[in-house]
Design a protein that fits this description.
elongated; mainly alpha; about 170 residues; 4 helices; single chain
Length: about 170
């Protein structure tokens, strides 16, 4: 919205090329997010089935553990990618908030708040799966990546939101 209300305006001619590029990136992110929503449901199904596998015999227990580990890793892949896309979106929103039309500045604040919520929500899906992984080194690697994204980008989203709020009041 910010980009759409910025391009074509004389007042913002000096940032028009940049706004077009940001809009293009946002359009791709929107497609990516929609695809990831579908993928998340797809990768959860095998994990859901794995939880119901029999474990009466040692052989069944071993097979369930093997299938669970693979399913948990796959189930983490999508929320990790969602987190990465949220970080990209937050970076774009910073630019929109700084350079975009003042008439739509509230949309930059809303975008920052929504992306922060999505980032935090996706992290919970990572953490619930890493908690159950037998491969603790891999789990901790994912947790560290998620922790780093949360630490950096929730602050950036908050700063963007607060900046917008300060300009509106």
């Amino acid at each position: 919205m910010v980009g759409s209300l910025t391009v074509g305006k004389k007042k913002y001619a000096d940032v028009e090329d940049e706004m077009w590029e940001l809009k293009k990136k946002c359009d791709q992110l929107q497609k990516d997010f929609l695809h990831l929503i579908e993928r998340d449901a797809e990768v959860f199904e095998p994990l859901s089935k794995a939880y119901g596998m029999p474990r009466e015999t040692e052989e069944e227990k071993a097979e369930k553990a093997r299938v669970m580990e693979a399913a948990l890793k796959e189930a983490c892949s999508v929320p990790m990618e969602i987190m990465e896309k949220c970080c990209e979106a937050i970076e774009l929103i910073v630019e929109f908030g700084a350079k975009g039309s003042k008439l739509a500045i509230s949309d930059a604040g809303v975008g920052a708040a929504f992306c922060k919520a999505a980032l935090k929500g996706a992290s919970l899906n990572v953490y619930i799966n890493t908690k159950s992984m037998a491969d603790r080194a891999y789990a901790e690697e994912l947790n560290k990546k998620a922790d780093a994204m949360l630490e950096k980008y929730t602050k950036i989203a908050d700063e963007t939101f607060d900046s917008v709020l300060g300009r509106l009041k």
